[in-house]
């Protein structure tokens, strides 16, 4: 059942080239600019003409929602808000007839997300679902949606569901951009081509496993971790920190790198490992100076960089090279080493990576 792997989590991490391919299957043909989600048709016009979109989700699915916010705003130019489902439902949100909600949930059974959907539905909103489990409560409660087709995710820590969600939401963003003509034909084709190549890049990133296992050895006894990223890699920082805390029980915080100087920098000393997701994008120079700020305070920096990067390796303690892709799709690649890092650290600490304490796969209580 674990397909030769010791744990479901590792199996599911390694399934990602296939699960992302499954999420893409039949939904895009880059060469002729085709992008389509078959499950969204009756309400497609409502979505395309949305004045704003509200995304509701919890945990890792909420992180996927943050990536989607950046993608939809950049390419389709529709304002997006991302809300924790639990906060949304208890704060009398402004939702009116015809408003657009996207609910993201792996299990499709998360009580808070389901309740947020019911609230919005009660006010006449149109709800789109991005779920993994077919026929789940959330899939049934939504008007339309797109499955991520990741297959069963057994490990409690979500891995392939995250990349499946980001993949489907990227398709959604590009589909909206196409309909709204907010991208040129060439821009669209180029993005689709890059998205199409993501499974190979993830495959390449998985080859980092042995290297990351080695790095993990040096951090088995760490008590805290900081994860920093900017732009599209900011949600990845949050996700990396969540993965580490839930399965290794090491306290970890994710931050937008520029926020560090507004507080967390006080924590940095030689005992503090800082994972910086610093792939080459338009905030590269800025993140380089964030790395220098950490090093000036003798923090231990583990940098995730784009392969061939010449500047960062000279400044940091550990370098993890990932293949390059468009900034918008980098989370699909840069999250892989972070999943592996948390897996190895947790395993070396003797933790049950598939069933961490106090956590359940579906959180069906409020
Ligand atoms: C993280 C994790 C949780 C879930 C959250 C939402 O690894 O497993 O944070 O992401 O409980 O669950 P779904 O996506 O099933 O609604």
Present as ligands are: fructose -6-phosphate
Radius of gyration: 20 Å
Beta-strand content: 15-25%
Instruction: Please summarize the sheet with the most strands.
Output: 5 strands, parallel
Largest beta sheet: what is the strand line-up?
4-3-5-6-7
Number of strands: 12
Class derived from helix and strand content: alpha/beta
Subcellular location: Cytoplasm
GO molecular function: carbohydrate derivative binding; glutamine-fructose-6-phosphate transaminase (isomerizing) activity
Active site: 361 (for fru-6p isomerization activity)
Subunit structure: Homodimer.
Task: Please provide a written account of the structure.
The chain is of the alpha/beta class. 44% of the residues lie in helices and 16% in strands. The chain has 14 helices and twelve strands. It has helices at residues 8-14, 16-24, 44-48, 59-76, 85-90, 111-122, 137-141, 160-180, 185-196, 198-206, 209-217, 234-248, 284-296, 330-348; strands at residues 28-29, 34-35, 53-57, 80-84, 100-105, 126-131, 144-147, 224-229, 251-256, 273-277, 300-306, 318-322. The strands form three sheets. It has a five-stranded parallel beta sheet with strand order 4-3-5-6-7, with helices on both faces. Strands 9-8-10-11-12 form a five-stranded parallel beta sheet, with helices on both faces. The chain has a two-stranded antiparallel sheet with strand order 1-2. Helix 4 runs parallel beside helix 8, helix 8 (160-180) runs antiparallel to helix 9 and helix 11 packs across helix 14 (330-348). The longest helix has 21 residues, at 160-180. It is globular and about 55 Å long. The model has no long low-confidence stretch (mean pLDDT 96). The structure holds fructose -6-phosphate.
């Amino acid at each position: 059942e674990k397909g030769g792997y010791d744990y479901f989590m590792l199996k599911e991490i390694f399934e990602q080239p296939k699960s992302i391919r499954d999420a893409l299957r039949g939904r895009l043909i880059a060469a002729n600019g085709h992008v389509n989600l078959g499950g969204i048709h009756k309400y497609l016009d409502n979505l395309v003409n949305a004045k704003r979109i509200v995304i509701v989700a919890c945990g890792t699915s909420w992180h996927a929602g943050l990536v989607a916010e950046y993608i939809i705003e950049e390419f389709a130019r529709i304002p997006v808000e991302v809300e924790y489902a639990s906060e949304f439902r208890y704060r009398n949100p402004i939702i009116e007839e015809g408003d657009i909600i996207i609910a993201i949930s792996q299990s499709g059974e998360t009580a808070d997300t389901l309740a947020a959907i019911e609230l919005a539905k009660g006010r006449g909103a149109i709800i789109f679902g991005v779920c993994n489990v077919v026929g789940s409560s959330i899939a049934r409660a939504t008007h339309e949606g797109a499955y991520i087709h990741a297959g069963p995710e057994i490990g409690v820590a979500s891995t392939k569901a995250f990349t499946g969600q980001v993949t489907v939401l990227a398709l959604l963003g590009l589909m909206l951009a196409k309909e709204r003509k907010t991208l040129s034909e060439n821009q669209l084709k180029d993005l689709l081509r890059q998205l199409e190549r993501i499974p190979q890049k993830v495959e390449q990133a998985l080859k980092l496993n042995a290297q990351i296992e080695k790095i993990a050895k040096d951090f088995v006894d760490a008590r805290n971790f900081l994860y920093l990223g900017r732009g599209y890699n900011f949600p990845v920082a949050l996700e990396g920190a969540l993965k580490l805390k839930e399965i290794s029980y090491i306290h970890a915080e994710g931050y937008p790198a520029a926020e560090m100087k507004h507080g967390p920098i006080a924590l940095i000393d030689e005992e503090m490992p800082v994972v910086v997701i610093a792939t080459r994008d338009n905030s590269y120079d800025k993140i380089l100076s964030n790395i220098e700020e950490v090093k000036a305070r003798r923090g231990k920096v583990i940098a995730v960089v784009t392969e061939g990067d010449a500047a960062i390796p000279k400044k940091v303690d550990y370098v993890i090279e990932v293949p390059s892709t468009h900034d918008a799709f980098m989370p699909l690649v840069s999250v892989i080493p972070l999943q592996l890092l948390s897996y190895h650290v947790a395993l070396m600490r003797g933790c049950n990576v598939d069933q961490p304490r106090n956590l359940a796969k579906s959180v069906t209580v409020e």
